[in-house]
Amino acid sequence: MSIRSYPHLFAPLDLGFTTLKNRVLMGSMHTGLEDGNKHDRLAAYFAERARGDVGLIVTGGYAPNRVGGVKPFAGKLTTRSEVRKHQRVTNAVHDEGGKIAMQILHAGRYAYHPFSVAPSRIRSPITPFTPRELSAAGVEKQINAFVRCAQLARDAGYDGVEIMGSEGYFINEFLVTHTNQRTDKWGGDYTQRMRLPVEIVERTREAVGKDFIIIYRLSMIDLIPDGNSWEETVALAKAIESASATIINTGIGWHEARVPTIATSVPRGAFAWVTKKMMREVTIPLVTSNRINLPSTAEQILSDGCGDMVSMARPLLADPEFVRKAREGRSDEINVCIACNQACLDHTFANKMSSCLVNPRACHETELNYNKAADSRKFAVVGSGPAGISAALVLAERGHEVELYEAAAEIGGQLNMAKVIPGKEEFHEMLGYFKRQVELTGVRVNLNTRVSADELTTRDYDGVIVATGVTPRNPGIEGQDHPKVLSYIDVLREQVPVGERVAIIGAGGIGFDVAEFLLQDGHSPTLDLDEWLAEWGVVDPSVARGGISPRRSPPEPRRQITLLQRKTGKHGARLGKTTGWIHRAVLKMNNVQMIGDVNYERIGDKGLLISYGDKRENPTWIDVDHIVMCAGQVPLRELQEPLQAAGISTHVIGGADVASELDAKRAIDQGCRLAAGL
Ligand code: NAP
Ligand code: SF4
User: Fold this and answer.
1) CATH 3.20.20.140, applies to 378-471+636-677
2) 237-258 pLDDT tens trace
3) N or C: which end of the chain has fewer CB within 10 A?
4) Catalytic: 216?
5) pLDDT at residue 45 in the model
6) Going by CA atoms, what residue is nearest to atom 1 of ligand 1?
7) 513 lines ligand 1 (CB under 6 A)
8) Which of the following is catalytic: 45, 110, 158, 169?
9) What is the model's pTM?
């Protein structure tokens, strides 16, 4: 597969005054590098992506003024001294032959600070601050801020700007009645409500001249009640075209929408059909977006006429060489974004620097590098889960000789269980990437090999990395040897038959995974777009405002499941900020009973006996066919002591190091960082 395999993806796009070398737009994504004085790190981050051949980069959002910042001290472009700092970024991208546009983002009522402004004084459901309603003069001031910001972006060397008009931010808030209840010329009927974006684009064009890219990001499906109708969205797109925007990019759903739009359980390219509807309405290029993570998916979407370009943000975080690899026929070498959000969006919402679960170098380009080692040494890595395999690959990339030992018949450790969960199919891509990298780097793999400390000590290694993972915690419940009791490994790996009534002990990541696995019984709505859209109540926006209708009545769940935990509080509280609610919603839709504050008293023929609270009240039998233990895990590291006693340089990583709250993000990061320093 090469450039010839992706003729649509690699067709240049002539914009009249400039030409993009291919159809890949690196979508805007806030990483944290935009805030504070991190321009050199940002320059390195984008330069690497430009070197990887992306057609057009769009930065994370920069505020056009203080009130428009997403949070206090959010990155902005309002002064000449900031222009000079931005020049470091644009120069770095241009030096690599790339093009870059800056996104202008006014957060409106989504701003996480008390100075937020909006068309009307209506608080959003996802922020604690009520915005101040702008006066008519205040609206003019915001427009001027957009225009000046675009001018400054031009001075800073950007090839264009993206005006953020979607996702429920400031501009979007003028468009719909539930956030715009104004009675002046900026509110009222739709022509008045859409005046703001049109004026912003028109006045920006006047200010920046003809030969500057203006992308307008337009909410094509709001996914909220009383969102825009399709006729309104089309009217806006036409007006934006007339206002001289160069490109329209697709926005999908407001942030407050209760429909997943980018999580891993969203089918690939799930919303490309929305952009396709718009293709017949305007003549300027349209960018389609959301859950496009492979060149083949992108090519298919373009060849189906769903857009003129594809936007990919997270996939370029995961692999800066995504485009180049596709062009050179090396698609099987792409480190694929699995859409987990764990190191990118979840970090952003926790006010932490973004990175990427599959690529810990993302946003750390200036400090985490896999340079060739001064001397080639010989290492053993024991365990090929995410920690071990990552360490092995980085060691090999740096020129060391690496021998990998794996007790199972395949590499990947617990990733092999994750991949069978409905909605987590992307883990197959991660495993595929690891397997291909093993071939390319020459790591010697010994499968079905439970290596002993004695064997390791006699093999002359300069160091041993113990990545032997975890084993299920023994919860010590009376009667736990009963035949009704299964472990999550029995269910997910051994796939032993499970009855119709099930109690799950433990509501962490694995308890949720097991619940979803048992509910779907081998089926996955993620692999069936129509079913998935119906499940979440997404419809054609020509049929219902905002493209949502009541969810279809769920079919009778395949199993009756009870998910238990000892603590009080919501189940799955430690699941990802941006994805936990989706998992909880799926379980609720399928009538899973979630019970907390329990004590596990006993297991017997009748099922599971629980009681409640400190006083062990209301003892109740849960009558089930099976009880699945998902009570956490403990480290497996018996090799450590004998190896250290034998004087071998030994490093323990991943779950073998710390089992609690282990996930692939920490495991991969730890493996890569250790190997980078050896
Ligand atoms: P976990 O998240 O630590 O959850 C363990 C569960 O077992 C908790 O609900 C805990 O709740 C319960 N528990 C702990 N000790 C117990 C005991 N002695 N008896 C009975 N119950 C006990 O661990 P996990 O579910 O095994 O997941 C392992 C790691 O993989 C986690 O860090 C998880 O984040 C990660 N993972 C993540 C995902 C994801 O979607 N991101 C999916 C799968 C796994 P109580 O103490 O309240 O009972
Ligand atoms: Fe993709 Fe997950 Fe990496 Fe984010 S952290 S870029 S979602 S793989």
Assistant:
1) no
2) 999 999 999 999 999 999 999 9
3) N
4) no
5) 98
6) 508
7) yes
8) 169
9) 0.96
